[in-house]
Amino acid sequence: MPEWDLGDLYPAPDSAELERDFALCESEAKALAADCAGRIGSLDGAALAQAIRRYEVLDERLSRLVSYASLVYARDVSDPKSGQFMQQAQERANEIVSGLLFFTLELNLIPDGELAEKLKDPGLAAYEPWLRDQRVFRPYQLDQSLETLLHERSLTARQAWSRLFDETTAAMRFPVPASDEDGAAVEELSLEVALHRLSDRDPAVRRRTGRALGRTFQKDIRLFALITNTLAKDKEIEDRWRKLPAPETARHLANLVEPEVVQALQDAVTAAHPRLSHRYYALKAKWFGTDQLDWWDRNAPLPEAEDRTIPWAEARDIVLDAYRRFSPQLAEIGQRFFDHPWIDAPARPGKAAGAFAHPVVPSVHPYLLVNYQGKTRDVMTLAHELGHGVHQVLAGGQGHFLSQTPLTLAETASVFGEQLTFRAMLEAAGPQKRKMMLAAKVEDMLNTVVRQMAFYDFERRIHGERRQGELSADRISEIWLTVQRESLGPALRFDADYGSFWCYIPHFVHSPFYVYAYAFGDCLVNALYGLYQQAEEGFAERYLDMLRAGGAKRHKELLAPFGLDAADPAFWARGLDVIAGFIDELEELS
């Protein structure tokens, strides 16, 4: 399986090229500050456009440096040298950015009328979407000295706690006995491999692995509770100074989505629990001959499911063929990731858990990380991350600033790629295989929609309660279990061991309130795919145009050509109905 070659960024962490670019960023930042600090508001349209262009070039070079450091670290989170290199790179970048904070702060102080006059310059007008998005934070902006303090302290505050979380989870080993017999051999598993074992065919393996996970998390639960409490308090302090009305407000602003749209999504998903997750897991329990499933059986393969390992080359062909059927151009861009060392696929000790697509910068290319272990879900993960990668390539034409897509729309291409791959595999399946695939897809969609919105609910409860005082590990676990029971339903049996499973979710640490973007993207894709199935002429090209837009347009503008509106409650119902329809079919097949 392929592994990254990061040489397209820099030859090595100690290379002369890397040092040259850092030195160049430092000198350019000083020059930009000398030329523009205190003068941004007085520049005419043409001069302001030129200043923004200088700022963009500098920011792209700095992003390339930081991206390289984070990718080196992700290859082996357990390597102290990698961690040290990343920390040093972040500290150096942080110091450079501190000297540039004046730029966006001064931009936001320009009165709307004056900015409108400046935007008559064609060069500045090209940056209008970026300026618009920067200015959503105007009401919550602090003075420059406070903004500089918050920025410089981030390395010893949020980023330091995030690094502690990453290194702790990467170093954890979960002792799973080979059998239930006393004295049985014990296998020490990494987090990624242990979580994968919860989908093992053998129920005893799932049970023993689940117990090992819960009890090992429990040993470090005070540390995870400290990280959670500290980051929640850190956020509360900053939110209070900025006068942000709710803990999730900053995420909504960054995502360029209205709070009422997210609330409509949450309300729709919560109302759908009985006909989605509650109904499906009751059906799955019936397939297993019981009224209730233990939590470690939630992702268990069905009793009659095949357990074939899908080789990497076959997974690649499945995904690319599905992309090609929709759009040859989509497949051609996807093929580049396999023709070049842009994917890191094997599951290795120390490697970052999960999967991601890192956009890096438009002048290079994205890098994908997966932990491929040969299951159907791994094929879907590959399709998902490749969708991100293709989106990032297409949006790159907008330039560094305007290629950056809000999280809510960033999940569209990834989930659409999954949908294309799933539908292609489903068409080729016989009746028995179709049932297995439908069940697996429903579980993935429940994980993406119901479970991620439950995560969002969990975060809101934690951050809300933390404002009244520190939460004990037991209280955090109690909130976690309450949310899981409400969202997943009475057909799943939870116990104290599962109460600690909040510990390993990285989004809670790295990107508070990120998780609703998954549900947003899934429901959006369901609605888009319904239009595609109607074989509307030109759909594929309109879809690619949406991806090419990057961050130049907001969700209302991007969805308008498809006749969709996320502010309409019927929009979310349409997406959830797709999941309900799959469950209807499963009930008929049972």
Total number of strands: 7
Largest sheet: 3 strands, mixed
Span between termini: 38 Å
- Helix/strand/pairing category: mainly alpha
Strand content: under 5%
- Radius of gyration equals 24 Å
Shape: globular
Instruction: Trace the largest sheet across and list its strands.
Output: 4-6-5
Which whole number gives the mean pLDDT?
93
Poorly predicted regions are none
* Distinct helical segment count: 26
Portion of residues within helices: 55-70%
Description of the structure:
The protein is mostly helical. The protein is 65% helix and 4% strand. It contains 26 helices and seven strands. The chain has a three-stranded mixed beta sheet, with helices on both faces. The chain has a two-stranded antiparallel sheet with strand order 1-2. β5 and β6 form a beta hairpin. α1 packs parallel to α3, α14 packs parallel to α26 and α20 packs across α26. The longest helix is centred in the C-terminal third of the chain and has 36 residues. The chain is globular, with a radius of gyration of 24 Å. The two termini are 38 Å apart.
